[in-house]
Amino acid sequence: MNPWYTDYSEYLSRIFPGVKVQKISVDAGRSCPNRDGTIGTGGCSYCDNRTFTPGYCRPSLPVAEQLALGKAFFSRKYPLMKYLAYFQSYTFTHRASASEMKRMLAEAAATDGVVGLVIGTRPDCFDASVASLLGKTAGSMPLFVEFGAESSFDATLRRVNRGHTWRDTVSAVALAADAGLHCGLHLIAGLPGETLGDALTTVDRAASLPIESVKLHQLQIIKGTPLWREWKEGTADIRIPELDEYLAFCAEAVRIVDRRVAIERFVSQAPAGMLEAPKWGLKNHEFTARLHRLLSEK
Ligand code: SF4
């Protein structure tokens, strides 16, 4: 516990008292509506899903086998660890029938050591029927929904080919909260055409919604993505902040977000070989230590 904000482990310890909990990623073999032609193609311009899919995650394997591989990965270090099955890759609720979602969630919930379920999705792939289905599942164990909101500015969302609006985010969060789900938002700072001040506006708008957590990170330019090509051509309209500038931004975000909302993280770290910028050379825990130093000075 730190004196400035609720971090993710403190948040989880309130829901799972006395238990150390770790997310294990599961790939449900989905796509996204802005990739597969449902509303567009190409996906979000900054996205390469490989940057956040662990090596043990294989969509060709059944859910239980993916979880077994993930558990083997973590349990060597922490034998008493419990797990959250994290349907992270792409958009879990996109083009999935109710029976398929139920089957996958039930398979995960029945896995030994799994104490909660987490699904990653988009605000435009979440309606009342999905909320109701997940709400029923949440009766058996805690269920967390993480929405990729990224920005509260529709012009930015159009620019990076998200294919949804901020209004979609507000509606989806309301549905999830009404269904009794633990709800979190994913936000990116430094998107094309935005300043860090704009990102703080998004943090502020997000923190006023009925969410329990935010996951914040800097924009990363990943080699091979459409954004990387724009960056190379000089048309991306991005200014990569210096590390100190980004630290100051995070300190301000901490001031805005009250303790009701946990901050899961401040930075993301793509594999070095895939990352074009920024190259701050800090691991996540080193960044957090620097931020805490700055917060204590303030
Ligand atoms: S919705 Fe998520 S997974 Fe899909 S293209 Fe965008 S960032 Fe990537």
How would you characterize this protein structure?
The chain has 298 residues and is an alpha/beta fold. The protein has a single domain (8-297), classed as TIM Barrel. It is 37% helix and 17% strand. Helix 4 links the parallel strand 3 and strand 4 (143-150). Helix 7 packs parallel to helix 9 and helix 9 crosses helix 10 (284-297). The protein is globular. It starts with 7 loop residues before the first helix and ends with a helix. The mean pLDDT is 95. The chain binds iron/sulfur cluster. The site of iron/sulfur cluster has 11 residues, from loops.
Number of continuous helical runs: 10
CATH superfamily: Aldolase class I
CATH-assigned fold name: TIM Barrel
**Mean of pLDDT:** 95
User: What is the CATH architecture annotation?
Assistant: Alpha-Beta Barrel
Task: Give the overall shape, derived from the CA principal axes.
Answer: globular
The biggest beta sheet reads: 7 strands, parallel
Q: How many strands?
A: 9
- Name every ligand kind in the structure: iron/sulfur cluster
Strand line-up across the major sheet:
1-2-3-4-5-6-8
- Name the structural class: alpha/beta
Radius of gyration: 18 Å
SSE layout and pairings?
Elements: H1 8-15, E1 21-26, H2 63-75, E2 82-87, H3 98-109, E3 114-121, H4 128-137, E4 143-150, H5 154-159, H6 166-178, E5 182-189, H7 196-207, E6 213-218, E7 221-222, H8 226-233, H9 243-256, E8 262-265, E9 275-277, H10 284-297
Parallel strand pairs: 1-2, 2-3, 3-4, 4-5, 5-6, 6-8
Antiparallel strand pairs: 7-9
